[in-house]
Amino acid sequence: MKTRILLPLAGMVLLAVAGCHNSVNTIENAQKEGQRQMISDQRIITDQGLAKKVSFVGINQTMTPGGLLKVQIEVLNRKRSSQRFSYQFEWFDTSGMLLNNVASPTVADEVEGGESKFISSVAPTPACRDFRVKFIEN
Amino acid sequence: MKNKILPPFLAAAISLVGAGCATNAHYVQTGGSQNVVNIGQINIQDYMQAADTMTGELLASGALDKVSNPPAVLAISRIVNNTGQQIDIDLLTKKIRIALLQSGKAVTTTVMGLGGTAEDPMAKGLQQEAEFKADQKVTRTPDFTLSGKIIQLAVKAGNTSQSTYSFQLSLTDPRSGLAVWEGEKEITKQGTRSSVGF
């Protein structure tokens, strides 16, 4: 009787554990055609737990044909479980003033265990040269 | 003795509870992570995210930079609501218009609209009067029109509900009738039935 109860229970536990540890495998071309223009960054980490699950790999930037700065940030989940997070881009003009962008949302996102992900944004005006991105755990 | 202590104590306790209830209402940042999330409705953060993504894509495409006399003039055409809920399309289009205006890449006409209706009838009247007096056309024909659709796809499995909102926009060159830029932003929300989240 005891075995009848314990066996399905063990199966459920195993399934739950397996579900928590779905990490991502990737493959890509080794000889890259495109060269990322990486830039130096400045980080302020106040949530160490989030920093492990959504760790910053680097930032690269490019200019669009219309002269707008486009920024791309690579984040990597160093853990095996998925993580929900939100981020928000803030853009600054040449005087360092924050631009009041009407559509600057806090974007909800998710990164799977072991997954590397890119998040990007385009500057709202050609005058924007500086930016800051805020990350928060959901 | 008992009667002397209890009424002031009770009054103080009640007023404290009342004060506690009064602080329940509070301000949150629009579009922030503390905003309420509904599965069956488009929330303000969804409009903001769709507008931000598609404006960024439109600006990055360089389609607006290909006009002979910049900034490009934009006219808002039909944006179909296929969601089954009553929504104000301006929650999406106004954000895009403001962002495009601030970028310096495009301006939107308010004297030309779908079916001959103008967003600003007074401006249209004054503009027609100016044209009549000058005996020549002064209005710039729009370089592009913006049209689109919002679609909702709802599915349910057991107790879990999921809604995908697809925001689709097309930028058309009216001279050629060709869509020179097209963008789509899909937002999917999932949760248990009638649940709200943050």
Largest interface: A-B, 22 and 27 residues
Proportion of residues in extended strands of chain A: 35-45%
Query: What share of the residues of chain B lie within helices?
Result: 25-40%
Tell me the structural class of chain A.
Answer: alpha+beta
Strand content of chain B: 25-35%
| Count of helical stretches of chain B | 4
CATH architecture of chain A: Sandwich
SSE order of chain B, one letter for each helix or strand: HEHEHEHEEEE
* Main beta-sheet strand count, sense and barrel state of chain B: 5 strands, mixed
Structural class based on helices, strands and sheet pairing of chain B: alpha/beta
E-strand count of chain A: 7
Q: Mean pLDDT of chain A, rounded to whole units? A: 86
What is the CATH class of chain A?
Answer: Mainly Beta
Could you estimate the helical fraction of the residues of chain A in percent?
A: 10-25%
Overall shape of chain A: it is globular
Number of strands of chain B: 7
CATH fold-level label of chain A: Immunoglobulin-like
Overall CATH architecture of chain B: 3-Layer(aba) Sandwich
Which fold name corresponds to the CATH topology of chain B?
Answer: Rossmann fold
